[in-house]
Amino acid sequence: MALLEIENLSVNYGGVQAVRGLSLKVEEGEVVTLIGANGAGKTTTLRAVSRMLRPREGRIVFAGRDITRVAPDEAVRLGVAQSPEGRQVLARQSIQDNLELGAYTRRDMGEVRADIGRMYGRFPRLGERRNQLAGTLSGGEQQMLAIARALMSRPRLLLLDEPSLGLAPIIVREIFDIIGELNAGGTTILLVEQNARLAMQRSHRTYVLEAGQLTLEGDSARLVNDERVLHAYLGG
C-alpha cells in the first residue's frame, strides 16, 4: 500500500478548476517530483494534500486513511507537513520561535526541545542565529528554516513547494543535498520544483502536469531523457 494515494482529484482555486481528475501515488521512502509550467496545478495539488484546499472531487488517502475531509492540523498530526512556496517564515519571530511553532500539534515538550537541538545540528547556520528574527535571514537561510519548521512535526510525508525558488545555484545544491539526506534518513518527499532537471536527478519518480491534468509519469531517470519532457521543461 502506498503511503500517499490520490484518486481522481479535482480542485478549484480562485474560481478556476486548477486540478482535474488527477491520480498519483507516493510509496514510502520515495522522492517523487511534480513538474509542469506555471499554473499547471502543482501547488494546488500540494495544498490539497496538506488540507489547505478542499477538493471538489476525488480522494486523498494517507497511510491507509482517507484524509480528504480532515482539518489541516489533523493532517499534520497524522504525519503530513508542508514547506510552502516562498518559505513563508514568520518574519517578526525568531528562528527559535518558528521552530517551536512548527511543533504546535505536539505535547511532548521535552522531545520538542530535543528536536530543536537536532535541527540546529542539521542546519548549523540556524543554530548560530537562533535568536535572530527570521525576516532578517538570507533567502537560503529562510528556506532551511522553512524545511526545519516542517520537520518539527515529525512528518512521514514532507511536501516541498519550490525549495530552490530565488536562490543562488550554490545554495540550491546545498538545499538538494539536504533533501537527499532527509530521504536517506527515511523521510518520504513529494517535491514541486521549477528546476525540473535537478529535481528529476534527485527523485525516484516524476509526474508531469499540464493545465491541471496528468500527462506523463514514470521513473525520473527515464523521463529526464524523454523528448517531450526535454523540450517542454528541460530546455533541450
TrEMBL record:
Sorted UniProt keywords:
Amino-acid transport, ATP-binding, Nucleotide-binding, Transport
Q: What family does this chain come from, according to its entry?
A: Belongs to the ABC transporter superfamily.
Q: Name one GO biological process term.
A: L-amino acid transport
> What is the protein's species of origin?
Deinococcus phoenicis
Q: Which Pfam families match?
A: ABC_tran
Nucleotide-binding: is it a keyword of this entry?
yes
**What InterPro entries would the database entry show?**
AAA+_ATPase, ABC_branched_ATPase_LivF/BraG, ABC_transporter-like_ATP-bd, ABC_transporter-like_CS, BCAA_Transport_ATP-bd_LivF, P-loop_NTPase
Q: Which residues belong to any copy of the ABC transporter domain?
A: 4-236
- GO molecular-function annotation terms? ATP binding; ATP hydrolysis activity; branched-chain amino acid transmembrane transporter activity
Please give the name of this protein. Answer: ABC transporter
Reading the lineage from the top rank, the first entry is: Bacteria
